[in-house]
Design a protein that fits this description.
This protein has about 625 residues and is mostly beta strands. It folds into five domains: about 140 residues, Glucose Permease (Domain IIA), CATH 2.70.70.10; about 160 residues, no CATH class; about 70 residues; about 100 residues, no CATH class; about 90 residues, Immunoglobulins (Immunoglobulin-like). The chain contains four helices and 58 strands. The protein is flat and about 95 Å long.
Length: about 625
């Protein structure tokens, strides 16, 4: 028995060493850039679902404060320094002898040597936002060298360090796969809800067409289960609301792998530990984009839609979707985190033909109309043996059709809009509002009308029905529930060009209007959109607001803001010499950084702030370098 245990342990060790040797990621090469050797707590992991992208690294918590030491993860050289208003904010890149590059983002300030070099280059270019490429001999570093202090710059939502590892081809890699002993996770992912979706014209789920949510619970054994029976037919797609937890962080984090099996056959396998930057927007096709935008729910599709060009899927012939073929269809869903902790859900989908329930007392419902992918559907519940007829108008012709009987007193009619676009629809004597009026095709990407034109060239992931119209001096371009992969160009026509035309621009209607801009040509304006939504022409004649905070020989500090279009440029001079002003847009603070710290400010100070509508605000003061007196 002892000998058997010895051999078993030996084989396990050999297997583990073999797995490590075969791993594409070097183990133990890097150290954690924050508090190496201590347990690391994360607010975000690789593969977290964010709007427009998967998260590309680790968000390392800093206790809600700035100023934590950031160390080089390995020897190498500083290959890039980038300072920008949004995005990664203040960031440095270190390239290592093994070909990998590590990225450190949202920094407060760089170490003294790098900061001095950075400021000198900003003065040379007379620009705060800057992107510097460095050669291998300029700034060599050793593992553990102090590189910067952590901060909250750029698009961060709170103080932390964003840490990435990239390969030579600029693919981002999952840092948790590099064997950091500081990272530990023994908690399994959470499965909160699944959704089932009809994917073919004849498909039904519990007698209806569309997408239906099913909450997931745990039984007394701690197993994930569904509380209700599911009947279906046709081609079905599954989606899952899932996330990971770690023991030392309250934040929900992303999962590493999702595997779906139906009747013992693997239909979908998603594993994310490497991805390229060029197709990052394809993330919007991996998720249920509408739920992400409207509800903030991070729902994974367990099938691959048209236009999704990620390469980290392994699917069956239907790209993850599956047919209801058997009387009883066994479904097994497995979700893993990067540390191989797993959550599992097993349930059955019964063939619709098995449902024998009859409810003659069901109340007659109002028909509901909806859109699911390319399908327009009408669901209706009644115990009538002959339901009301449906009259449709498509391609200029009228046609009469009828509901199709399903189970549980449900009646449904489904139309494929990619084949025949429905303009008008009546159920009995009731005219229904068709929620779309145009069908975008990748093969025919241009929309033209009397009021406006749109060029969707290369900007759509897949064909889709949409609703686009001019109404009440607004362009209502569908809803932001269908993602775009790149900018589309809109030409809004038939305008009487307004006075002060340079102060008018296009804005996306949101909680706060978002400046888009546009170019005028006679009585039309052309602008680019990155998302569907409602667009409006608005006037901004109000210059930005400048509030002085500190103005003396040592420092210049202001708070700036703009009412509508937003800050475009910041320009400051002392005695006509350009002065570097750092900018933190979240707080509206700007502050000076001298080219020569020993030289005091003295003389006339002029600050000019320009907004996106061309309005300019100026603040002038005189600094007298005598006993640090300040004049305003």
């Amino acid at each position: 028995m002892i000998l058997k245990k010895y051999f078993k342990a030996a084989f396990l060790i050999i297997g583990l060493k073999t797995a490590i040797a075969q791993s594409p990621f070097p183990k133990g090469y890097f150290i954690m850039p924050i508090a190496p050797g201590q347990a690391t707590s994360l607010s975000g992991c690789f593969g977290d679902i964010r709007i427009n992208h998967f998260h590309a690294g680790l968000d390392i918590r800093t206790g809600g404060v700035e100023g934590k030491n950031v160390y080089a993860a390995a020897e190498g050289y500083v290959s890039r320094i980038k300072i920008q208003n949004g995005g990664y904010g203040n960031a440095i890149y270190i390239t290592h002898p093994n070909g990998y590059t590590t990225v450190y983002a949202h920094l407060k300030v760089l170490n003294d040597t790098l900061q001095k070099y950075l400021v000198a280059q900003q003065y040379v270019q007379k620009n705060w936002e800057i992107d510097l490429s460095l050669n291998p001999e300029q700034f060599k570093v050793k593992q553990g060298d102090l590189m910067a202090l952590s901060g909250n710059t750029g698009g961060s939502a709170g103080p932390h360090l964003h840490f990435e590892i990239r390969d030579e081809k600029e693919n981002v890699l999952d840092p948790s796969q590099f064997g950091f002993s500081d990272l530990k996770d023994v908690a399994a992912p959470v499965i909160e809800m699944i959704s089932l979706k009809t994917m073919s014209k004849d498909a039904r789920i519990n007698g209806k067409f569309g997408l239906f949510n099913f909450p997931v619970t745990k039984n007394k054994k701690g197993e994930y289960v569904l509380a209700q029976k599911i009947y279906a037919k046709g081609l079905i797609g599954m989606e899952v609301l899932t996330y990971d937890r770690s023991g030392n962080s309250p934040f929900r984090q992303g999962v590493n792998r999702i595997v779906l099996q139906v009747n013992g056959e693997k239909t979908f396998d998603f594993k994310l530990d490497k991805m390229a930057f060029h197709n990052r927007l394809s993330m919007n096709t991996h998720v249920n984009y509408e739920k992400l935008i409207n509800k903030g729910q991070k729902v994974h599709r367990c099938y691959v839609v048209d236009g999704n060009d990620f390469d980290f899927y392994n699917t069956g012939n239907e790209k993850g979707k599956f047919w209801i073929k058997n009387d009883t269809n066994a479904v097994k869903l497995e979700v893993f985190d990067a540390f191989l902790n797993a959550a599992r859900l097993e349930f059955k989908i019964l063939n619709e033909s098995l449902d024998k329930s009859v409810n003659p007392l069901v109340k007659k419902s109002q028909p509901t109309i909806g859109i699911s992918d390319n399908f327009l559907f009408v669901n209706y519940q009644s115990n009538d043996s002959i339901p009301e007829k449906i009259i449709v108008k498509a391609n200029g012709k009228f046609d009469t059709t009828y509901f199709e009987k399903s189970i549980q007193n449900h009646w449904t009619k489904v139309f494929d809009l990619s084949e025949n676009f429905i303009d008008v629809l009546w159920v009995g004597n009731k005219k229904m509002d068709v929620p779309v009026n145009y069908f975008i095709r990748k093969s025919e990407p241009n929309f033209k009308s009397e009021k406006f034109d749109i060029d969707f060239q290369e900007s759509v992931f897949f064909d889709a029905p949409v609703n686009m119209q001019e109404k009440e001096n607004k362009l209502m371009l569908h809803e932001d529930i269908i993602p775009l992969k790149s900018q589309a160009t809109v030409t809004w026509k038939s305008f009487n060009a307004p006075n002060y035309i340079d102060k008018f621009g296009i804005y996306l209607q949101d909680r706060k209007p978002k400046f888009i801009g546009g170019e005028w040509a006679k009585n039309e304006i052309k602008f680019n959109i990155k998302e569907f939504g409602t667009y409006q022409l608005m006037y901004d004649g109000v210059p930005p607001l400048i509030t002085p905070r500190t103005l003396d020989s040592n420092a210049l500090k202001y708070r700036i803001s703009d009412e509508l279009s937003g800050i475009k440029t910041i320009h400051c001079t002392v005695n006509d010499e350009w002065v570097l002003m750092n900018y933190e847009f979240k707080s509206g603070l700007i502050w000076s950084e001298k080219a020569d710290p020993s030289k005091p400010f003295s003389g006339k100070v002029v600050l000019s702030i320009t907004d996106n509508a061309g309005n300019i605000a100026r603040h002038e003061t005189e600094i007298i370098n005598k006993n640090n007196e300040t004049g305003n």
